[in-house]
Write a structure and sequence with these properties.
By secondary structure, the chain is an all-alpha fold. It contains nine helices and no strands.
Length: 217
Amino acid sequence: MDDAETQFDIDHVEHSVGGFGGHAFRRLTHVSMSLIPVLYYTRGEDIAGFFSLTLPELVSYVFFAVLAIEVVRLRFGIVIVGQREYESKQISAFAWGAFAVCLALLVTGMEPFASGTGIKAGMYGFPLIFGLTFVDPIMGEIKRIKHDLKMAIVVGMATSYIVWVGCSFWLGTPLWVCILLAPLTVLGELPPVRYIDDNATMIMFPLAGLLLLSPFL
């Protein structure tokens, strides 16, 4: 088995720091990231104002802080509870996820995506980030327990549509956009790319689709 296969076909529980407990902690952290857009769209301005920053500046500073920590972590080969052993030598899933989340918040805060105030301003940010935080753990656990990629895709697709269409009813995200982009969330979980974690691609694929649709919004 070559290195690439080792990266993607391993038992993530066995190779997680902390074993099953570490794996469960990683999944819990994943789901808890759903609080990020909630805080961002309801309290973001207040938090940014406390530091005398604009909201986009706050997002960028947060990412730069994560990047600095990641550089130090890689320099010393540090892995913490919940991370996989191979992450001691490559960019972590957390860092990739932070990059994608920050990118989504920045892009969807620009025209023509920015509309509404408060929670309604997240009509695109919420489904992009919720797709990562909910679809990825569900698909990952099905693949880990059932070893059934087709089942993971079917359940992941259903979950993704629940997220996107739910945001259409909740926030007013255009339904036609939801129908087109929901599959891209699932697609982002599938490619076995060695150095880019699916925490990034599950946001970046639908975000790229959203950018291509922007002339029609």
